Amino acid sequence: VLLVESGGGLVQPGGSLRLSCAASGFTFSSIVMSWYRQAPGKERELVSFIPPSGDGLYYINSVKGRFTISRDNVKNTVYLEMNSLKPEDTSVYYCNDNNRRFNWGQGTQVTVSS
Questions:
Q1: Burial code of 50-67, b = ≥16 C-beta within 10 A, e = fewer?
Q2: pLDDT tier, 109 (very low <50, low <70, confident <90, very high otherwise)
């Protein structure tokens, strides 16, 4: 299994980023995929998940209305569109399945700062 996150960067408050996670080594189209994040000194937390069909999305309260998760079951990729970014969104972002079964990728750093 290989999970490769990309798309992070430095952005000003109110800005936007689109994260991607390219997956391989398992049947992507049958797995609930999730985005997680980990800020310095904090535990890794679930941000959002998306079932295989794309229905029944979940978001933590702090990102509802700002983040949108999506997936492409042909490209084996899951995305996280992040808008209206806040400094408290600063974290390393990771993807995995909803049970954290796979080895973690390197993550992608998102820094929100003026």
A1: beeeeeeeebeeebeeeb
A2: very high
41 C-beta neighbours (distance < 10 Å), count:
5
The partner residues of 20 in beta bridges, in order of sequence, read: 6, 79
Closest C-alpha to 18, from 68, 65, 75:
68
Share of residues in the chain with pLDDT > 70 (%)? 100
Beta pairing class for 77-82 and 17-24: antiparallel
Torsion angle of the four alpha carbons 13, 77, 45, 41, in this order, in degrees rounded to the nearest 10? -60
User: Which is nearest to 93 in space by CA: 77, 108, 71, 78?
Assistant: 108
pLDDT at 112: 98
The DSSP symbol for 89 reads G
Rounded CA separation 79/19 (Å): 5
Average pLDDT, the chain: 97
What pLDDT was estimated at residue 85?
98
CB 106 within 8 A of CB 2: no
